Every structure is written in C-alpha cells, then in structure tokens.
Amino acid sequence: MKTRITEMFGIEHPIIQGGMHYVGLAELAAAVSNAGGLGIITGLTQRTPENLAKEIARCKTMTDKPFGVNLTFLPSVTPPDYPGFVQAIIDGGVKVVETAGNNPQKYLPALKEAGIKVIHKCTAVRHALKAQSIGCDAVSVDGFECGGHPGEDDIPNFILLPRAADELTIPFVSSGGMADGRSLVAALAMGAEGMNMGTRFIATQEAPVHENVKQAIVDASELDTRLVMRPLRNTERVLTNPAVERLLEKEKELGANIKFEDIAEEVAGVYPKIMQEGTMDVGAWSCGMVAGLIHDVPTVQELMDRIMSEADGLIKQRLAGLC
Ligand SMILES: Cc1cc2nc3c(=O)[nH]c(=O)nc-3n(C[C@H](O)[C@H](O)[C@H](O)COP(=O)(O)O)c2cc1C
Fold it and tell me: Which regions form coiled coils (predicted)?
C-alpha cells in the first residue's frame, strides 16, 4: 500500500506505533519497523539525552529500517532537557520525530535543518492547522477514543478525521481506536493516509512490558476506560482499577479546588511499577477504548501482516463487491 505517509517515511505499510511512556523502548520500535511500519522510541522515558542516545544506538542494532523518536512536551515545573534530546536525535541520525503535547515550533528549525521529518500528534483540527502552518510535515490526528491524552474537545474520529481531511493539505494519519484492517480501511476512507496505534501495540509479544499489562488489555472491554484529570484540563484516558476509582472519588469530592498534589499518589511515578513490575493497581495508566477490540498477544509481524491482509481483502473484495 502506497500513501503519502509511506512515501514520506520510507516505510512499507502506513502504520505507525505512537510514542508510549515506558513501552516505546528499542525492542518495540525495532519490531514495528522490521515488520514494515514506523516504530517510535519514547524520548522522555529515557530521562536524559545521554540515555536517549544509547537507546537510539541500541535500536539501530536491532533494525536497519527507519524508526522515529517521540518528544512529548509536558506542562512541567522543571522541564526536561528538550534541546539536549533534540541534539541526541540529530546526532543519532534519526529521520522522523513525533511531537506531542504542545507546539513544537521552537525545535523545528534544528530538526528541519537535519533533514528530519516531523509528525505532530494533536487532538483538534485547529491544532493540526497550526502544526501545518509552522512547517510540520504531517500530523497524527488523535480522536476522543484514544489512550493517553485526548484533549478537552471530545471529538471522536468519525467526525475528527473527515474534518481534518477537509482542512489540511499535509498528510495525516488517524490515531485513537485503531486496531485492525477495518480501522485502517475506515481511516483511509475518511481521508487519512495511514494509522497510528498505541494500545494495540502494547498487547504484542515484543512490547517490553510485564505480562500483566498485556493480559489487562486482553481482559478489558471498551467499557473499561475512564477519563481522569479533567478538572486539571489534562484529561487522560486510562484503564480503570481501584487507584483510578479512588482518584475519580477525589475529583468528585474536591471539585474545582482539586490540585495535582491531591492525586499525585495515583498518577506520579507509577509507570515503571506498572509497566516493568506489573503491579497493576498502583495507579493510572493510559489505555484506549480499543482494548475492546484486542483479544490476543501476537508478534508484531503477525499483527501487521494480519492488518494488511484484512485491509487488502476489505478493499478488493468487500468494498469493490458493493459497487
Ligand atoms: C500506555 C500509553 C502511554 C502513552 N504515552 C505517550 C507518550 O508518552 N507520549 C505521547 O505522545 N503519546 C503517548 N501515548 C499515546 C499514543 O502514542 C497514541 O497516540 C494513542 O495510544 C492512540 O490511541 P490508541 O491507544 O487508541 O491506539 C500513550 C498511550 C498509551 C496507551
């Protein structure tokens, strides 16, 4: 399948693995790239530019295909060393960066000068247009269904994607709720030129996370996610568990007076414990509604092959047969 996204990133299939904190390590990025998609290392999980440089080098020992690095710009009292991360990406010879969380404008000149393509992930058409206007090469349009941070507009992909198609001239991929060949074909029909998946890639053999995380996704239905931190305007879609329900109770009790400190126990620093140690109830972790469509833990290669052959069959047989 050839789209503006496969051409831009030099990949075989129009499928991207979105950056994921404590999941997007070299093992997963390399597996996705080796299977013909675009794997992405999550920059901030590496904590320092030196560690990121090592992770990029490690990924290069596992794949000779293109892969990217995610740079998430978070609201933070002591911001990470973003210029250092950008330099590590440039020095590492990485050719694609996925930005998210905030406007990446400040770092675009350095990235562009190094010949790096930038795909900005955003949850609103107005943000996608801004990304286009500042020179991003592509956008990842993240609908309300998505795992992680869906923004505050709550527009699902059935509306968001055609709206993006109507407004944008740069290519975009659909993100949020994508799991299989049906997702890909639907996304293409709505004007996207590929898809980005998060949650689906966690439930794969190569995802370097504890088995409990994969099992939790397989066990979950589409009814099992919750939106937390909405009162802080930092909404995150997570899988429910006792810590999440406790957090939601606090939100209800404290209302508009809630502060980050009130819920720090449930959200701060919990990722290593969940992703690496498998202590699932320790806090809130991002997960998409798409969990309801995930019933197995295949290898990345099996997953990608299945998606592409399902998409091929849908387009050539089911859809063509309708006309
Ligand atoms: C566990 C987890 C961690 C994530 N961490 C990040 C992150 O650090 N930066 C980022 O830009 N997106 C992050 N995301 C969002 C994904 O890159 C992707 O946009 C999202 O998962 C798409 O929705 P889906 O889960 O329905 O496929 C995360 C998602 C999950 C499930």
Answer: none
Tokens read off for 79: 């911001």
pLDDT tens digits for range 252-302: 999 999 999 999 999 999 999 999 999 999 999 999 999 999 999 999 999
Q: 213 C-alpha to center of ligand 1: Å?
A: 14
User: Cα(323) to centroid of ligand 1, in Å?
Assistant: 37
Ligand 1 and 176: CB distance under 6 A: yes
CA of residue 317 to ligand 1 center, whole Å:
32
Domains held by the chain: number: 1
Answer yes or no: is 294 within a domain.
no
How far apart (Å, rounded) are the C-alpha atoms in residues 270 and 213? 13
Q: Which two tokens stand for residue 50?
A: 């030196």
Query: How far is Cα of residue 86 from the mean position of the Cα atoms in its chain?
Result: 19
Beta strands in 15-116 (DSSP E): 15-17, 39-42, 67-72, 96-100
Q: How far apart are the first and last CA of the chain?
A: 21
Per-residue pLDDT tens over the stretch 161-208: 999 999 999 999 999 999 999 999 999 999 999 999 999 999 999 999
276 domain residue, yes or no = no
Is residue 19 in contact with ligand 1, taking CB distance under 6 Å?
A: yes
* CATH code for position 189: 3.20.20.70
Query: Is 170 contained in some domain?
Result: yes
In the reported structure, the alpha carbon of residue 320 is separated from the centroid of ligand 1 by a whole-number distance in angstroms of 33
Return the percentage of the chain with pLDDT > 70, whole number. Answer: 100
In a domain, 131, yes or no: yes
Check if 198 has its Cβ closer than 6 Å to any atom of ligand 1.
Answer: yes
- Residue type at position 264: A
For residue 73 and ligand 1, the question of a CB distance below 6 A is answered with: no
